[in-house]
């Protein structure tokens, strides 16, 4: 999914009001009726809303849904991206957006800059990228509305990531500095390092290996299991020592799937994190350790603190955790490496069918078509570093 921010500076305050109105309306409406958008936006100029609507639709921030019983619009990914970036700009968190540096199944990563020119990372969570159509068992949390769901689930992932990053950072764990969070996005410091996956040789694998395993243990002592502790989510910085050797400094990223040590499968996730590191060091560096473990039971015998409980009491509630959990389980999202489920190919076919819940009251095809068209439009536009305000 491309992010094209070139139009963001040209939106007037009325356009923003109408865009926000569409977002608000979509809390209760799969397709937001045009009169409702106008009503919520409550522009001073009587007829102005229609012009804004057509502006926003033209640049793909909202999409007209044909086939509906009534005339209406829905917010697109692009629209939600703009709203989030607009908020980050207003709070002086982000000044410009640059190149995309990562694309995952569930997120897009961009470099961005602060007002003072400091390089940061913008992570956009995209949990609806895979169709919601397959989600049946847990329909209650979707309340039958697919578009509200992708927005909501993506926001949950962002809130969770941000809250955990803050807690971990506070306790001195090597994670990026959390800078801001809005809607489905997180802003964090840019780590000047590559994922461990891209490192082919290390001078002393034993030291890095020991450090990574002790990180897993320390996380557990704080009540947490990363759940996706692998070579994609560990960035390794190479720092030359004075004696000519090179120190390898790991930073851990990617927290939406973190689980508490009280999780019913906690031990499984813990063991899997450990196994990931062991396997990688064996295959990549030919390094194996004779020492067994670490083991979940030993690691959680003496707890330092319960960050899992602390975070629950913060912005990421138990209810939110449960909803996100249900979604992730349903979609087999539990890791870059391990999380790709067998349905993947099937899911890919569904990529454009976010709105196609089979009992939704609107025609899904037109939404899919609008999405496809939007993607196409955006692909044709050059993406380059752009100042937002
Ligand atoms: P995903 O959920 O898609 O796996 P990640 O948070 O793991 O998202 O980020 C994907 C990739 O983007 C990482 O493997 C890394 O290359 C890059 N990346 C993410 N966050 C940062 C950061 N703070 N600094 C530098 N690179 C990052
Ligand atoms: Mg990752």
TrEMBL record:
Residues 66-305 form the RIO kinase domain. GO terms for cellular component: cytosol; nucleus; preribosome, small subunit precursor. Residues 342-362 have a biased composition (Acidic residues). Pfam families: RIO1, Rio2_N. It comes from the Eukaryota. Its EC number is 2.7.11.1. This is Serine/threonine-protein kinase RIO2.
């Amino acid at each position: 999914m491309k992010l094209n921010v070139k139009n963001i500076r040209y939106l007037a305050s009325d356009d923003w009001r109408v865009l926000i109105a569409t977002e608000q309306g979509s809390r209760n409406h799969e397709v937001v009726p045009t009169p409702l958008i106008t009503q919520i936006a409550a522009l001073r100029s009587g007829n102005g809303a229609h012009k804004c609507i057509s502006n926003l639709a033209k640049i793909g921030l909202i999409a007209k849904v044909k086939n509906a019983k009534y005339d209406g619009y829905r917010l697109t990914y692009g629209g939600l991206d703009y709203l989030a970036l607009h908020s980050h700009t207003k709070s002086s968190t982000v000044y410009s957006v640059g190149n995309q540096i990562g694309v995952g199944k569930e997120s897009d990563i961009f470099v961005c800059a602060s007002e003072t020119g400091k390089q940061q990372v913008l992570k956009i969570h995209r949990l609806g990228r895979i169709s919601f159509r397959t989600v049946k068992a847990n329909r209650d949390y979707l309340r039958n509305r697919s578009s509200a769901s992708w927005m909501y689930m993506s926001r949950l992932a962002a809130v969770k990531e941000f809250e955990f990053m803050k807690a971990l950072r506070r306790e001195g764990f090597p994670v990026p500095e959390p800078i801001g969070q809005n809607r489905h996005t997180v802003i964090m410091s840019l780590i000047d390092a590559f994922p461990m996956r891209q490192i082919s040789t290390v001078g002393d694998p034993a030291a890095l290996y020991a450090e990574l395993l002790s990180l897993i243990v320390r996380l557990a002592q704080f009540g947490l299991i990363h759940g996706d502790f692998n070579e994609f989510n560990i960035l390794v910085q190479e720092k030359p020592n004075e004696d000519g050797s090179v120190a390898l400094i790991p930073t851990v990223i990617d927290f939406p799937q973190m689980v508490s040590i009280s999780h019913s499968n906690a031990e499984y996730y813990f063991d899997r994190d450990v196994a990931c590191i062991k396997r990688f060091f064996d295959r990549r560096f030919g390094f194996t350790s004779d020492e067994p473990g670490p083991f979940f039971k030993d690691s959680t015998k003496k707890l330092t603190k319960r960050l899992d409980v602390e975070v629950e009491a913060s912005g990421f509630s138990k209810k939110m955790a449960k909803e996100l959990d249900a979604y992730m389980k349903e979609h087999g999202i539990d890791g870059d490496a391990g999380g790709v489920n067998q349905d993947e190919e099937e899911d890919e076919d569904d990529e454009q069918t976010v709105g196609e819940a089979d009992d939704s009251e609107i025609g899904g095809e037109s939404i899919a078509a609008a999405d496809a068209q939007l993607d196409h439009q955006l692909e044709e536009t050059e993406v380059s570093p752009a100042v937002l305000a």
